[in-house]
Specification:
There is one protein chain. The protein folds into two domains: about 10-40; about 50-95 and about 110-158, Sandwich (Immunoglobulin-like), CATH 2.60.40.790. The protein is about 20% helix and about 35% strand. It contains one helix and nine strands, in the order αβββββββββ.
């Protein structure tokens, strides 16, 4: 009787590929969970506002950049409470005129507001904080140092 020679497991290469893929997917999932964890640890906002925000560490200062297209400086409010930065904005669409004969075929511009609450990763010097708005981008410079528990409203430079 003719027997087949002993051969290694024919699917060994496929099994190795699946093992490597599983390890890579587990590693990617852990990395993604850490990113979500870090993001939620800093962002205290309870709802997604659609307003994009960046937090950068520039060595001696933290810099927060927020997209605020269509908002005037009077529409924005910035508060620093301890290590929590709160940025709110509210704008209304251009007032409607009753004597206006315009008929809108589509109307998407409406009252808009947002509120973002951001926990800063370290204390900042509340007296040195300043903010500017340029081309629809709000930039807040927060010099690092010690912080206080006082609530402080931050004026936007014009």
């Amino acid at each position: 009787m003719d027997t087949m020679p002993d051969r290694p497991y024919p699917f060994e290469d496929v099994q190795e590929l699946f093992d490597r893929l599983t390890k890579q997917l587990e590693s990617a999932a852990r990395s993604w969970e850490m990113d979500v964890d870090n993001q939620s640890r800093l962002d205290l906002s309870t709802e997604q506002s659609g307003t994009s925000l960046d937090l950068a560490d520039e060595g001696d200062a933290l810099v927060v950049t927020v997209d605020v297209p269509g908002y005037d400086t009077d529409d924005l409010e910035i508060r620093l409470t301890g290590e929590t930065l709160t940025i709110t904005g509210e704008r209304e669409r251009t007032a409607e005129r009753e004597d206006d004969d315009e008929i809108y075929l589509r109307r998407e511009r409406r009252v808009a507001s947002f509120s973002r609450h951001l926990r800063l990763p370290e204390p900042v010097d509340a007296d040195g904080v300043h903010a500017t708005v340029n081309n629809g981008v709000l930039t807040i410079h927060l010099p690092k140092l010690g912080g206080s528990g006082d609530v402080r409203t931050i004026e936007i430079d014009e």
